[in-house]
């Protein structure tokens, strides 16, 4: 069994066709078929069912697929890591992050990176939740992850700053003229909820905090993306809690940001499966230099 055979197998699965996979790989169809058959002999059974119009996975193929994907991703990541260890003169740096950071903080950091390291291109993979980000990074889809600090991470992790969580309301909201609001004052409000809300011991921090004031947030809309939730809040659908930097990146000045009293902050981190070297280390240093630094005193929900 070879890495090339697994790459050929994955190409056939992705294209659902030997012909299209051969074209994508720039090899002949007989050569592709030969490699896939050799792989099937190696594992002891058919991985693909040949159909008149395409192919589909056999039960053995479905069991084999995620492991082949991980092996190929890990091999590519190993190659990138080896090249990155030599410096930041060229190549690609794959970054996994959450949508809120991609909209809020990363544009400015990416622009600065291009100015400092024009030979290293960035490949950004965005996820709607921290759970999805951490799961995919463990599978080897990127060289490093950037996001809220994971509760548990077995690999290298570097704290790089903290972000403030704020309440977003439209300009005509009765609270719009204030700079801060106590959570208890929002007991009778409609809420927009999104996948990026922080968890503590498996419970959404907002639910726990509101419960301490004797109410449950009245949810009127749920969404995967924080930017969508912010735009809904700016339009008056309800209030939402979101990172301050992301709100400014998503809708600019079209809404009002209210700090919570006391303020809420959470840690940001760069984390990876392997030690950060070369381009990955340089990106972590750049992010740390430009990430928001705020005092920890009175901070929640960390």
Describe this structure in words.
The protein is of the alpha/beta class and about 300 residues long. The protein is about 40% helix and about 25% strand. It has helices at about 5-15, 20-25, 30-45, 60-85, 100-105, 105-115, 130-140, 205-210, 225-235, 245-250, 280-290, and strands at about 50, 55, 90-100, 120-125, 145-150, 155-170, 180, 190-195, 200, 205, 220-225, 240-245, 255-270. The strands form four sheets. Strands 3, 4, 5, 6, 7, 12 and 13 form a seven-stranded mixed sheet that branches. A hairpin with a 2-residue loop joins strand 1 and strand 2. Helix 1 packs across helix 2 (about 20-25) and helix 1 (about 5-15) packs across helix 3 (about 30-45). The two termini are about 45 Å apart. Residues about 295-300 have low confidence and may be disordered.
